[in-house]
Specification:
It is a multi-pass membrane protein. It is built from six helices and 44 strands. The chain is mainly beta.
């Protein structure tokens, strides 16, 4: 009878036992017995993560009963896994073996923040990227991270894409590949179309929002993307990834690696092709790339060589469409010329050497070279020949020698070329005299040489007085830029308090061909020097939670257009930003959350006002005071073993205190006439007040399903905060809410290590929206008006991938 009662009681308690929450805890130490603080502890294929405290203790709490694989990693030590059966609180200690070689992570550690740093950041692993990597450009793989808005000219994420973080566009986002600058030295933008399918060769990314830590290349005024490409894999492998989707989108990727040969060498390679017709008419893309890397691992050093390249041919979809067209013919493309294309190739060569000089001292150095060349071709209607340095076409009567026809305009086709070289060195020296003290000295010296030249390749008239051939070069100018920086960084752990200091000096020299006055040009030089200090404090409330605060100063030089269309007397000032960050982070095993507040205070921010300077150039103008303030949330909750919830949210306000807009009359007879409009406390363009993302993910055995959502609030298309006669806000991008469904299935079969099926349905509710646009004002013969244009994004569409891993 007692046995029967026990059985009944056990049966009644089974559901509650299944829901019972347990924990896995333990200590992480090295073979010498020293505790390893800051080790990463996670459950394999689960969302539970933790870190070890100053005594090496970790805890993964609120775990349902079941079988788990605990994975522990620490820089410079071999990763270790243990299988743990959980039906009560469990203890699992780890003793990590120090590697007999240097880890690849040392290459980028100088430009990254550590786990408890007083800055705002997000780490994305290769597994995070692989979930959504189906051939769309890299910005689309970052779309679910805080404060991010992505855009696509072609409408479906293949071709020219853009990214904004905290409202700052790509020219204000510092991007490095293995610590080497990727931003174009002159325009300061990053063009991921030049490196298609880069994500397939990326191991991890750290996104630092705000000014962040000192890094190499252009100043970070919105964020930094620190990208690390392929790292060491111990086992040989091969992968074949194929994607087909809407708008005849194809991706074919093959990659392979040797694994570690004789415990010393490894080689990896990838070859990719991506093609798409685009959502917008004729907005096609034909993209190709490869990536090859080889490494030597010694006991105290590592030598790695990366060679990679990308080529793109993209039909232009740069003009956008009107608001009315968004409703009637949203896939419309105003370009009809057959070869209205952008054509570019970019080759990258990187050499890295890292040396463990002693247990306390690690040196890292790199050499790099990038060669880019290409052009975009466009048809131009009714162009003044004098603009292209072509004499007017005069047709005479052979009999009388009288002028019959005189042409000073013509339809034509032109090519705008860019041929550039970018090369230099980066370096860092990390000194760790004690477990609680770390000092890093780093920096870089880079040089850029750019050739800009433009050609007329066809004109309406086959013969224009012998003025030029069909490759008539009408503009030719060169630019040179050098960029030197050096920084020192100190991190000191005082009991529960971490003190961080970072000082950077940067020197920029730029030589360019630009305006001297309204009608003449000459080679000019400019030199700028910047000092960028950063300080931060982090206080550990518990082993799993901390609060932090930091203040960082950033300075940024004007871009090419600002320099070329001005002279020394009219050139805009450099921009200055003071970034204040403060927040709270906790990592409780099944629940991780980061809450962050920021205040980005600009001095002399550069914006478009329409004003012509004294030499007739329409460069951006400095506005004395502007700011961005906001709150960010980044959270993940593993509700049960198979079901997780991830969410981000940003609530912000971005304002320009005062500025004046200028609109000049474009009628030749009224040259110099203009209108002005004064504004105060207006919204900074492309800065939504609210951005949110959400993901519900459920896995069962080998299958998974996720609902992925993104909301972006209303955005102003310009800085005027314009309203119509009824007080309604005009010239805005409407808010949009987009939902995607992601289905995955993975199985081991037919001797293949993994066969993966990934089906992504984007915009499942068929929302008609635009993620980007622009506006302008005009004054013609004293008739004033404004216009706006938009870039429509794809309605419901899909991507289906079949992947094989051997």
């Amino acid at each position: 009878m007692k046995k029967l009662r026990f059985a009944v009681l056990a049966a009644l308690l089974c559901p509650f036992l299944a829901l019972a929450q347990f924990k896995i805890s333990g200590k992480v130490s090295g073979t010498n017995g020293n505790a390893l603080s800051g080790a990463s502890v996670k459950l394999k294929n689960q969302g539970f993560t933790a870190g070890s405290n100053a005594n090496g203790i970790y805890e993964l709490s609120n775990l349902p009963a079941g079988s788990y694989t605990v994975v522990v990693s620490y820089l410079g030590y071999a990763t270790q896994e243990k299988k743990v059966i959980v039906n009560a609180n469990a203890v699992a200690d780890f003793t990590l073996q120090q590697l007999s070689f240097v880890a690849d992570e040392v290459v980028v550690s100088a430009t990254r923040v550590a786990k408890n740093a007083a800055f705002t950041y997000k780490n994305l692993s290769k597994a995070d990227l692989d979930k959504t990597n189906q051939g769309q450009d890299l910005p689309y793989l970052l779309n679910q991270t805080p404060s991010v808005v992505v855009t696509s000219d072609a409408g479906a994420g293949v071709g020219y894409t853009g990214i904004r973080i905290r409202g700052s566009d790509a020219t204000r986002i510092n991007v490095t590949l293995n610590g080497i600058p990727l931003n174009d030295a002159e325009s300061q933008g990053s063009f991921f179309i030049n490196l298609p399918d880069l994500a397939s060769s990326v191991d991890n990314i750290q996104i630092q929002r705000g000014v962040g830590t000192s890094t190499n290349g252009a100043g970070a005024f919105g964020a930094s993307l620190n990208i690390q490409t392929t790292t060491r894999k111990d086992s040989a492998y091969a992968e074949l990834n194929n994607t087909y989707g809407s708008f005849e989108t194809w991706r074919n990727t093959v990659s392979a690696g040797t694994g570690l040969i004789n415990n010393k060498f490894s080689f990896d390679a990838r070859l990719s092709r991506i093609k798409s017709d685009g959502y917008v008419d004729r907005a096609s893309s034909d993209l190709k790339s490869f990536f090859v890397t080889g490494a030597y691992y010694g006991k105290n050093d590592i030598l790695r060589v990366n060679v990679f390249s990308g080529t793109e041919k993209t039909y232009q979809a740069w003009n956008g469409i009107s608001r009315e067209m968004m409703e009637t013919n949203r896939r419309y493309n105003s370009f009809t010329y057959d070869n209205q294309t952008d054509n570019y190739q970019q080759d990258h060569y990187q050499l890295f050497y890292t040396r463990n000089i002693s247990k306390q001292l690690v040196a890292n150095a790199a050499l790099h070279y990038t060669y880019g060349r290409g052009y975009y071709e466009e048809f131009k209607e009714a162009q003044k020949l004098s603009k292209y340095k072509i004499d007017p076409v005069v047709v005479k009567d052979p009999a009388t020698d009288n002028i019959v026809t005189f042409y000073d305009t013509s339809d034509l086709v032109r090519r705008l070329w860019l041929d550039n070289d970018f090369y230099g060195t980066t370096y860092s020296l990390a000194y760790t005299p004690a477990n609680n003290l770390n000092f890093t000295l780093g920096g870089a010296y880079n040089r850029y040489e750019g050739k800009h030249f433009d050609e007329v390749v066809w004109a309406q008239f086959a013969n224009y007085n012998g003025a030029a051939s069909m490759r008539h070069r009408y503009d030719d100018n060169d630019a040179f830029k050098s960029d030197f920086n050096i920084f020192g960084r100190l991190s000191y752990q005082l009991d529960k308090l971490n003190i961080y200091a970072d000082l950077q000096y940067r020197n920029v020299f730029y030589s360019f061909y630009g305006r001297v006055d309204a009608s003449s040009f000459a080679q000019q030089n400019a030199r700028l020097e910047f000092f960028n200090p950063k300080f931060g404090l982090t206080y550990n409330l518990t082993d799993q939670s901390n609060v932090y605060a930091s203040v960082a100063v950033g300075n940024k030089e004007p871009n090419r257009r600002d320099f070329v269309d001005s002279n020394t007397g009219t050139r805009p000032e450099h921009e200055n930003l003071t970034d204040i960050e403060f927040g709270y982070r906790t990592q409780q095993g099944d629940f991780n959350i980061g809450a962050n507040g920021f205040a980005m205070l600009y001095k002399n921010q550069l914006i478009n006002t329409g004003k012509l300077n004294e030499v007739g150039g329409q460069t951006r103008q400095n506005v004395p005071d502007s700011y961005r303030i906001g709150l960010e949330l980044d959270a993940r909750w593993q509700i049960v073993k198979n079901f997780s919830w991830t969410a981000t949210a940003t609530l912000s306000q971005s304002k320009i205190k005062n500025f004046t807009e200028f609109v000049y009359d474009d009628d030749e007879n009224r040259a110099g006439e203009f209108l002005t409009f004064d504004y105060s406390n207006t919204n900074i363009a492309y800065s939504p007040r609210f951005i949110g993302s959400n993901e519900f993910a459920y896995t069962y055995k080998n299958a998974g399903i996720a609902l992925v959502s993104k909301y972006v609030g209303e955005q102003n298309l310009d800085n005027t905060g314009g309203k119509d006669e009824n007080g309604n806000v005009v010239r805005v991008l409407d808010a949009f809410f987009i939902n995607d469904i992601r289905l995955t299935y993975n199985v081991k079969a037919l001797g293949i290590k993994n066969i993966g099926l990934n089906f992504l349905v984007n915009n499942i509710f068929n929302v008609r929206y635009a993620a980007n646009g622009g506006s302008g004002a005009y004054l013609t013969d004293r008739e004033f008006g404004r216009y706006e244009y938009f870039y429509p994004q794809a309605t419901r569409n899909f991507l289906l991938s079949l992947n094989f891993k051997f």
